Structure formats: C-alpha cells, structure tokens
Amino acid sequence: MLALFEPGNEPVPWLGNLLRLGPLDDLNATSQEPFPVKLLGHKPSYSSSPVVWIRQASLQSDIQKVLRHARKMPEKTPHFYKELNRIRKAALSIGFYELMDGVASIFEKECAILPGTAHPECHMQLTHAAQELRKPQAYEPDYSISAMPTKHVK
Q1: In the prediction, which pLDDT does 27 show?
Q2: Which of 55-59, 99-103, 146-150 has the lowest mean pLDDT?
C-alpha cells in the first residue's frame, strides 16, 4: 500500500512524517511523542456545530436559515455570509457541488419575489452572493465569499 503514496517523508499530510514510524520499544525519554498520537497541546474546537445533512430537512433548514438572514439585511449581512460560507464549505467537503448552483438559483428567485418593503441592500447582496457562488473560485475550499461593500457594509 505504501507504493501508492507520493515519494517523500510526508505523502499523507494528516499521517505525519513516515520516518517517525517505528516500534514502541524504540521510544525513550528523549524521543518525541509516540507517532501518530497528537501532541498534548492540540485541542480541537467544538465551539461550532458541524453540518449534518443526513436528512433532507437538515439541508432545507440550513438554506432557510440563510434566507432568513437575507430578508433581515443589512443588519444580518455578516450572519448571512457566515452561514453561506459554512454551507458552501460543507457542500465542497462532501462533493455536493450542485448545491452551490442550487443555492444561487434560490437567491435569484428570492430577489424576484422580494416585497417592495425590503431594504434595497437585500436585493444587491443576494444578487452578489448568487454571482459569487457561480464563480470558479467558489469551488476552492480556502475561498470565502464576502459581502459586497455598500454604505451599510464596510
């Protein structure tokens, strides 16, 4: 199986340096932590809940949350983009690329049915988010969609 990896000491980033592999008996007081056990200083963050889309209702609920924030713009603009990026990253991590185009279409439809009492920024930000979701950069995991600068959002 090791023949399948790229050449080098760290072919699988999460696995660590392969030179550190060895029997437990070889460890002594001067050696580093036993491989592949994580260092004691590493503590994962559990502050945000993970995205779970096992049922259709979970996905629908996440999209509705983004739309609720959208309807309350400009006050909820930062929350809108935070949730949008959370959904986008989750979709990318599981290979659900169609979701981004679907969400962009939902934003466009939402723009068409916005009531006349809606804030003008709501329409502008929804249109901007839909365009950003369709850009090739949106498929990069490190990319983050940010709000279009307006007089309310700096």
Answers
A1: 59
A2: 146-150
